[in-house]
Amino acid sequence: MSYLNNEYDIIVVGAGHAGCEAAIACAKLGAKVLFATLNIDNIALMPCNPAVGGPAKSTLVREIDALGGVMGEVTDATYIQMKVLNSSKGPAVRALRAQSDKKEYMIFMRNIIESNENIHLRQACISEIIVKDGRIIGAIDEFGIEYRCRAIVLTTGTSLNGRIFVGLTDYPAGRLGEAPALGLSESLNKHGIITKKLKTGTPPRVDSRTIDYSKMIIQPGMKKLHTSHSDQIDRLENKFHAILQEQTNLRTKLSRQTSINLRCIKV
Questions:
Q1: Could you write out the DSSP letters of every residue in 222-263?
Q2: What's the helix, strand, coil split of the chain in %, to 5?
Q3: Residue 138 belongs to what domain range?
Q4: Is the pLDDT of residue 197 over 80?
Q5: Is the model more confident about 199 or about 254?
Q6: Contact 166, 39 (CB under 8 A)
Q7: CA distance 181 to 159
């Protein structure tokens, strides 16, 4: 198959974390991949919390790594702090968590993708799937350009027919300041695939000038080197960067009722 003729084995739609892993996995198996994203400058974007791992996801990161994925590798190459959570408790509840450099993570992941000759990266909004005799044979983007394939992987995230809610106002959008992916939901519905939406929340951005650092303590990373990727342990230097954690009860404004957001916004 030739990408010059818009013919591929696989089309992966959406370049978030799942999309990157899907495109790379298909490429490693020898498939020719069209990797379509709304904005090629936002590949593997970390718009909110730049944490990888932690109590909920450290096992998932390890499983991705064991299956040949790259999230652990990229995390180890770009983290600014690594820490084992719940280290005072038993092994069953301990979890490795990294705080990544947002920009470096994106750059490193994009370099992996662009270095793979089986992946053809394209900025496009896939708006329709082409089905013949009950099988997917291609897709069409917002400009009417057709791409042929044998299978499609959808990792559209919050952009698919997305809406943003700000107070009592709502409007079509992906993330804030980004366009939604329109058309694909209707195409899926037409072919009998039911789509539903889940709501996600965005934490508030904090102006450093409003933070009282005297009421906080330094939480350094681990002195012992830990990694998310199995092959990295002998190649990485431990990085000593600190994050700040709340020391005393502060009067705060909360965007939602969760202790995770109980951070340092002074009233």
A1: -SS---SSTT-TTTPPP---EEEEE-S------SSS-GGG--
A2: 25, 25, 45
A3: 3-50+101-190
A4: yes
A5: 199
A6: no
A7: 5
In the chain, % of residues over pLDDT 70: 81
Rounding to the nearest 10 degrees, give the CA dihedral for residues 167, 171, 176, 182.
150
pLDDT, tens digit (0-9, with 9 covering 90-100), for 89-133: 888 888 889 989 999 999 999 999 999 999 999 999 999 999 999
Residue 87 DSSP one-character state? T
- Shared-domain flag, residues 215 and 154: no
Distance CA 205, CA 51 (A): 16
Q: Cα(first)–Cα(last) distance of the chain, in Å? A: 60
Structure-token pair, residue 11? 């089309």
Instruction: Kindly state whether residues 173 and 249 are assigned to the same domain.
Output: no
CATH number at residue 150: 3.50.50.60
Strands (E), the chain: 10-13, 33-37, 51-53, 79-85, 95-100, 119-123, 126-132, 135-141, 146-148, 151-154, 163-166, 169-172, 216-220, 242-246
Mean pLDDT computed over 136-160: 94
The pLDDT score that the predictor gives to residue 263 is: 42
Region of poorest pLDDT, from 47-51, 147-151, 205-209: 47-51
In a domain, 73, yes or no: no
Residue 10 makes CB contacts below 8 A (sequence gap 6+) with 23, 26, 31, 32, 33, 34, 149, 150, 151, 152, 153
Residue-level length of the chain: 267
Structural domain includes residue 175 = yes
Structural domains counted in the chain = 2
Other beta carbons within 10 angstroms of residue 111's beta carbon come to 12
Q: Are 36 and 6 in contact (CB under 8 A)?
A: no
pLDDT bracket for residue 4 (50, 70, 90): low
